[in-house]
Amino acid sequence: MSENRPHARSRNPFRRALSQDRPLLGIWSMLNSSNAVEGLSECGFDWVLIDGEHSPVTLPDAIAHMRAAKGADIVPIIRIPWNEPVLIKQYLDAGATTLMLPYVQSAAEAEAAVAAMHYPPRGTRGVAAMHRASRYGTDKTYLAEAGDAVALIVQIETQQALDNLEAIAGVDGVDAVFFGPGDLAATMGYLGKPAEPAVVDAILDGHARLKDKPVKVGVLAPNPELAERFVRHGFDFVSVANDAAVLFTGASALASRFQAVRAEGH
Length: 266
Description:
The protein has 12 helices and 8 strands. By secondary structure, the protein is α/β, with parallel strands linked by helices. The chain has an 8-stranded parallel barrel, surrounded by 7 helices. The longest helix is centred in the last third of the chain and has 23 residues, at 243-265. The protein is globular and about 75 Å long. The model is unreliable at 1-9 (pLDDT under 50).
């Protein structure tokens, strides 16, 4: 088994959490609020995803969110906008330890991501003497141990990626794959219907195909019912909600309740 697989003894907090062999429950953060991330970090979730793809989260924002989560018993995962080596380098230098990359469709794309995550001779990550990840140069072990301090999650979001699933998951340095039902549904002809049974079946089939592989498998659940199903099914990590939906769904329910009360009074 590769030293970069999640069961290995590791400096990386995501791998350490996965080594407990229980489903990790996560929440997606889309509000770009460090206060929200700080509060979510105390709510009992195992991991929080800071979304830099579909939310207006910049690199300085992500740093603020990581600081907000620091000290809490939660793993921050940063989703960057694209599988791009310059972005990967910037976020790793800024102190991100676990990155999620969207829309990885082939083993070659996964290999390119792995290369960007690691210093030579294994990879192509640029070397800097001083940055946040090395505690501004005070961590003298950083360069030697950086490869074990980072983890890579690649997203499976298209039919092409599903077709190449085993090859993508088999790339040394890919710690986990993560099914994204929104884009997957769109590529399967169900735009806007991530809970469509055919989409769910494709995800469950993908999970089964990786059952005997060392790579870990995660999924974003479109609703609480599917979240429960995915957890019970044995996914290694599941996003069960997002902060925007929790806020706005709750707020809408309150508004409807008190609109009804107001109507009764008039």
